Amino acid sequence: MEAKLPDARPLINVCDRFGFVPDLTHYLYTNNMLWYIEGYVQKVNPGNAPLVVGQLLDDECPEDFIKGLILSVRSLLPIEPLVDECEKRNRLRLLTQFLEHLISEGSQDVHVHNDYISF
């Protein structure tokens, strides 16, 4: 991270492999490299999207970017960890549109329906 590489892909691979996803997200966000965050969540590891969302909330990222990121991953996103990350930060309302979208697509996931009802 200190090297300020022009291409963040090697950094993304190392951080993903060794579990430094929040640090990676903070670095990419503070260096205005949002397209790498999108690429990481959409193509590299959608399963870590809850960690990314949690860090973006901590960094006070605009909600529109976070909502777009969540919607871009859709059903690949693990619901329970995402709800946990948002709940820790008292930002569950952020997920309303996403959960409605999954329900309208016909999701039968118990967590989707339970978490939507709890709002």
TrEMBL record:
Gene Ontology terms: biological process: intracellular protein transport; vesicle-mediated transport
Record's signal peptide: none
UniProt repeat feature CHCR, residue ranges: 1-65, 70-119
Origin superkingdom: Eukaryota
Protein name as catalogued: Uncharacterized protein
